[in-house]
Amino acid sequence: MATLKRFTKESLQILLNDIYQKYGFSKGDSQQITEILLKADMTGIPSHGVQRLKYYDGKIKSGQIRVDKQAEIIKETPISAILDGQSAMGHLVGKAAMDLAIQKAQQAGVGIVTVRNSNHYGIAGYYAELASKAGLIGLSLTNSRAIMVPTNASQPFLGTNPIAFGMAGVEDSFLFDAATTTVSYGKVQVYEKRGIDHPETWTLSDYDPSFTSNKQALAPLGGFKEASGSHKGFGLGLVVELLTGILSQGGTSDQISENGGICHFFLAIDPKLFGDKEAIEKSLDAYLQRLRDADRLDAEIPIYVPGDKEKLAKKANERQGIPVDDVTIAEIQAIAQDFDIDFPTPI
Amino acid sequence: MATLKRFTKESLQILLNDIYQKYGFSKGDSQQITEILLKADMTGIPSHGVQRLKYYDGKIKSGQIRVDKQAEIIKETPISAILDGQSAMGHLVGKAAMDLAIQKAQQAGVGIVTVRNSNHYGIAGYYAELASKAGLIGLSLTNSRAIMVPTNASQPFLGTNPIAFGMAGVEDSFLFDAATTTVSYGKVQVYEKRGIDHPETWTLSDYDPSFTSNKQALAPLGGFKEASGSHKGFGLGLVVELLTGILSQGGTSDQISENGGICHFFLAIDPKLFGDKEAIEKSLDAYLQRLRDADRLDAEIPIYVPGDKEKLAKKANERQGIPVDDVTIAEIQAIAQDFDIDFPTPI
User: Fold this and answer.
1) pTM of the model
2) Contact (Cβ atoms closer than 8 angstroms) between residue A117 and residue A125
3) In a structure prediction context, what are the per-residue pLDDT tens digits for chain B, which is 347 residues long?
4) Which of A177, B21, B29, B217 qualifies as a FRET site for B206, CA 20 to 30 Å off?
5) DSSP, res A46
6) DSSP state letter for B210
């Protein structure tokens, strides 16, 4: 079991802002990247937080992530746009693209933005929530390097291809964000870094002992058997693939190489197209509360609406600080040391 | 094990057209309903085909499905519409709504149509395929009476809430259509009617022996445990619920009663918003073929692209006739007899 140390959000903000500015990003861009990374850690999704710093570090230093580039609009209508990410940092590309989708939805009712030639953009839910915080319905999809094994296949072919969807009520909110694999590889990594066993079929090596060497061959949501719904998780991953890699003409997960080429899809819809916005939002609030109040299998275990656990984690981490495992600490310390940046003291 | 008899498509067409006209539907509407029902049987989805006739029969006779009504537009923009289904037959409401979404997408690039006060509309994929056959990307969602048990809950609260997505290439095509439960209740029914055991956790009674009496409490895709992704299937079902029941202001699955109130969501997108349509279609063809050519776990078992099995079933059923189990045959015979309609002879 790995040791976890806790840091104040502010101390990690300073650290990450400094590191990203040393790479050559502007102060504003560094703050934006930091915001998305720490949002993941704060909301209990460490797989997509600071533990990815070493991964991004390698890609920035190798030039796969281009510090000097930003997304460019290739084609645009009042309701749509396609962007070339120009191999810029995925978080910056994603933010620019969803902002554009939101702007279009606010003016025309709907905004659809596809993106090619981007990089890993962190938590898909961040972008969906940008829309829901603006009073819209938000959808955020991305492909990634091949890691999901299709039903009946013996090789990874799709990415984890997450689906994130956000919608807010007047007082309550819904934020779904999940890979179409049973778990993300980030989760497998966190379990390995923290030395915890997992009980279910997450990888091909869990399912078929002849594939023991490859932990990077993930089961679709629904596992590897059709009777448990393997083809459904696989099919949902394909839907993401078609809306990202195919529709943006940027390339599918099986074509994404160490040189990048990740594609995204963003959709924002204004609910007022369909009726009174406040009435819709109030009915969402009421629905989510009815759902939480449903009968439970175990009285001690709540029924969580997507987003609830993240809100609870945020409250806890605001109080206690952000937990970081010691493998990740060592990785970030090495990056900071290279730049002669002080590493913060744990709480 | 139930006996299956096979019928020509033509003989079932005549039978269903006659039955639906006897209920009072026009000839055109009867043909439309028949087309959607037989499409399900032809493509190997008997859960949504003629085995549902008795279910619809009860609802037509009780007045839950209104023969004399049709969907009405409540509010419309060039890119959107909201319809009141007026408790008409769901298949007719769904067809009208997706046709409207397609028309808007052909003119404005995108069409989003939400529907309230409808009824069960058959296979969700039929409507997604209407869009893909028109050269568009199609999405079709519906809620239904509560039957999915949320993660940690002990009562059904969501519908099976399927997601259907269609996109066509130049020569190939993709059609995904799946409940966000591990299986649809129609599938549980077909297994029961045909007397076949199933090996996996499909219902709450499979998971927890204290719920033996209720077969109508289905597992989300991912089962009942978070480690196998239960919360993901549950969350996807909620996404469907929000886009159908909440956005249309028609009511969520937990509110759908014997008096109806099913809600749908349809989206059509013209790929040409994002680039050269033919290039996108060709890259889809190439991608689907690469996918089928991926390495297999078992050389004898192909990698099926969503839609492939349906195409194979259609070819087989065109040759051999449509299989119908004897329980369903007896049910339809009783309906036909009431109307003094001849029942066709099996092949």
Assistant:
1) 0.97
2) no
3) 568 999 999 999 999 999 999 999 999 999 999 999 999 999 999 989 999 999 999 999 999 999 999 999 999 999 999 999 999 999 999 999 999 999 999 999 999 999 999 999 999 999 999 999 999 999 999 999 999 999 999 999 999 999 999 999 999 999 999 999 999 887 787 787 777 887 788 999 888 878 876 678 999 999 999 999 999 999 999 999 999 999 999 999 999 876 679 999 999 999 999 999 999 999 999 999 999 999 999 999 999 999 999 999 999 999 999 999 999 999 999 999 999 999 999 99
4) A177
5) G
6) G
What residues 157-196 of chain B have any CB closer than 8 A to a CB of chain A?
A: 157, 163, 165, 167, 174, 176, 178-179, 182-183
Are B198 and A227 inside 8 Å of each other by CB? yes
From residue B227, alpha-carbon distances to A197, A209, A307, B160, B231 in Å are 12, 20, 17, 21, 9
Helix locations, A158-276, DSSP H: 185-193, 204-207, 230-241
* Alpha helices by DSSP H, B172-229: 185-193, 204-207
Number of H helices and E strands in chain A, helices first, is 11, 9
- The residue type found at A340 is D
> What is residue A249's three-state secondary structure?
coil
Q: Dig out the tokens for B130 from the structure.
A: 């209407």
What domains sit in chain A, N to C, each tagged with a CATH number?
Answer: 69-306 (3.30.1370.60)
d(CA B161, CA B264): 10
Residue with the two structure tokens 């749908």: B264
| Position A240, amino acid | V
Q: How far apart are CA A174 and CA A186, in angstroms?
A: 23
What's the CA gap between B133 and A22, in Å, rounded?
52
Nearest to B163 by CA among B43, B306, B66, B334: B306
Query: What is the C-alpha to C-alpha distance for residues A233 and A153, in angstroms, rounded to an integer?
Result: 14
Please name the amino acid found at residue A184.
Answer: S
Q: What is the ipTM of this complex?
A: 0.97
* Spatial separation of the C-alpha atoms in residues B163 and B125, rounded to whole Å: 8
Q: Is the Cβ of A306 closer than 8 Å to some Cβ of chain B?
A: yes
Q: Give, to the nearest 10 degrees, the angle between helix A90-108 and helix A27-42.
A: 90
Please identify which residue in the block is written with the tokens 């275990």: A301
Rg of chain A over CA atoms, in angstroms?
Answer: 20
Bridge partners, residue B5, by sequence: B324
CB-based contacts of A252, cutoff 8 Å, min separation 6: A143, A158, A241, A245, A246, B287
- Assign A320 to helix, strand or coil: helix
Say if CB B326 and CB B343 are below 8 A apart: no
The minimum CA-CA distance between A28 and chain B, rounded to whole Å, is 30
Sequence-ordered list of residues with C-beta below 8 angstroms from that of B35, at least 6 positions apart, any chain: none
Total beta-carbon pairs less than 8 A apart between chain A and chain B = 232
Which token pair is A21?
Answer: 């500015």
